[in-house]
Every structure is written in structure tokens, then in C-alpha cells.
Design a protein that fits this description.
alpha+beta; 2,3-Dihydroxybiphenyl 1,2-Dioxygenase, domain 1; four-stranded mixed β-sheet; Glyas_Bleomycin-R_OHBP_Dase; VOC_core
């Protein structure tokens, strides 16, 4: 009889973005106001407190090598993934988009009504990683900066 393996507790703890210029990316995410932690890593890797999973920045070619994948060609098209900056109000969505653009992001889609009763827009960071600024029914942002989902 096969031994039953223990079931691990699922969790998402870190999102690592491969970046072309780590110094420029650190400057961008610092400018957005994310709180950098473990600064002793210097320019090797950067970790940010997001109020939930950690956001990490790592040189693109080194991240690809670590995952044993080729680092080229680098996709210019949609990568099938977005990061979300959930907001408390529609006004906050507009503020986040304008702020991100003022810090070097590229506006992909101006904020507007969604078909599910929300409000969102999109921007891309300097490496093209897509962020959604959004307020959505059933998703609240608490004072703890964490997202709380309706039951």
C-alpha cells in the first residue's frame, strides 16, 4: 500500500518579476510607494512589502536561468497575467493610474466601467508587466492594505 503524502497548505507568498534594468525598476517601484525590505540585497534582488504577497524584482536573464528557461525572445505581447492594485473607490483607481503614469508607467487603458459593476484601468511598468487598478464588488481593501473577499 502506498504511503499517503501529507497535503501542504496552499499559499501564494512571492510574485517575482523579471526586469531588464534592476536599478531602474527599483526606482520605479520605490516611486510608486511600495516599501522595500531586505535592502542588504542591494541590486541583486529587491523585495517589497505589498500588504499581502511579497513583490520581488530580479534580473530577467538570471530569473530565466534559475528556472532553466531561455531568456530570449522576450515577449512583447500580452503574457497572460496581470497584477492588481485593488482600490477602495473609483476615485482611487483614477489616482493610482495617474500616479503610476507620473512615475514612468505606460497607460494601457484609461479607467472605465466594467461589465461586472466595477471600475478599472491598466498600466504597464517599465518592463511591460501589466497592472490593473480596480475597484470591484465583493472585494474590499481594508485598513491593513489586505484584500478582503465577500463570502
Amino acid at each position: 500500500m502506498a504511503k499517503k503524502l501529507p497535503v501542504p497548505v496552499p499559499r501564494l507568498t512571492v510574485i517575482t518579476l523579471g526586469v531588464s534594468d534592476i536599478r531602474a525598476s527599483i526606482a520605479f517601484y520605490d516611486a510608486l510607494g511600495f516599501s522595500r525590505r531586505l535592502k542588504a540585497t542591494g541590486d541583486a534582488v529587491a523585495f517589497y512589502d505589498t500588504g499581502g504577497p511579497v513583490l520581488a524584482l530580479f534580473p530577467w536573464d538570471q530569473l530565466a536561468a534559475d528556472a532553466t528557461l531561455p531568456d530570449k525572445p522576450r515577449p512583447q505581447a500580452f503574457r497572460g497575467m496581470t497584477l492588481a492594485w485593488n482600490c477602495a473607490t473609483r476615485e482611487e483607481v483614477d489616482t493610482v493610474l495617474a500616479f503610476a503614469v507620473s512615475k514612468g508607467a505606460r497607460l494601457l487603458k484609461a479607467a472605465g466601467e466594467t461589465d461586472y459593476g466595477g471600475y478599472c484601468g491598466y498600466f504597464a511598468d517599465p518592463d511591460g508587466h501589466v497592472w490593473e487598478a480596480v475597484v470591484a464588488p465583493g472585494i474590499e481593501v481594508g485598513e491593513d492594505r489586505r484584500v478582503h473577499l465577500a463570502a
